[in-house]
Design goal:
Elements: H1 2-28, E1 35-36, H2 38-43, E2 49-52, H3 56-61, E3 68-69, H4 77-83, E4 91-94, H5 100-110, E5 116-119, H6 122-128, E6 133-134, E7 140-141, E8 143-145, E9 159-161
Parallel strand pairs: 1-5, 2-3, 2-4, 4-5, 8-9
Antiparallel strand pairs: 6-7
Length: 163
């Protein structure tokens, strides 16, 4: 009986957190860039270019495998465009939750990129779903930089790092 109650409680908590994430993204994003879910990205047979739209200290703490750092505060569109000559390439931009990545993705879209997607829930959702992240030496890590203690509430799995 306790296992059943625990199972339903776990489902309720997960649904609640997902709903809050949905509300958060709706509050901050215009949804001008389509989302891709963590599961869809992980299980896709398509090849994507992954762009990390967080700050350098966040990226060096951990990132998705093969992701390219483009940053946010100092995002350089000219440099990024120079490194991405194919404007039809499938590009997934991510950040912590999907807010900053939408801004960067919009800039790429405005620059003529035709297949830019925002990772729903960002690296937090990636890690919350039990997926692997890598440090600056490309070694698996449990650490995820959460920016601040306030934002760390969205990371449910892994080791929270913030300053």
């Amino acid at each position: 009986m306790n296992k059943i109650l625990f199972f339903f409680l776990l489902i309720s908590i997960n649904s609640f957190s997902q709903e809050n994430l949905k509300e958060l993204l709706k509050e901050y994003n215009t949804e001008s860039i389509p989302y891709i879910s963590v599961d869809s990205l992980k299980n896709s047979s398509d090849e994507f270019i992954l762009l990390d739209a967080r700050e350098k200290k966040e990226f060096t703490t951990s990132h998705l495998k093969n992701a390219l750092f483009v940053g946010y505060d100092n995002f350089n569109l000219k440099k990024t465009v120079k490194n991405l000559p194919n404007k039809n390439a499938k590009i997934v931009v991510y950040c912590s939750l999907g807010v900053r990545s939408e801004d960067v993705a919009e800039k790429l879209k405005d620059a003529g990129y035709t297949n830019v997607i925002n990772l729903y829930g960002g690296i937090f959702e990636w890690k919350n779903n039990g997926n692997t992240v890598f440090n600056s030496k490309e070694k698996e890590t449990e650490k995820v930089h959460t920016c601040t203690e306030e934002w760390s509430k969205w990371l449910l799995k892994g080791e929270k790092i913030y300053e």
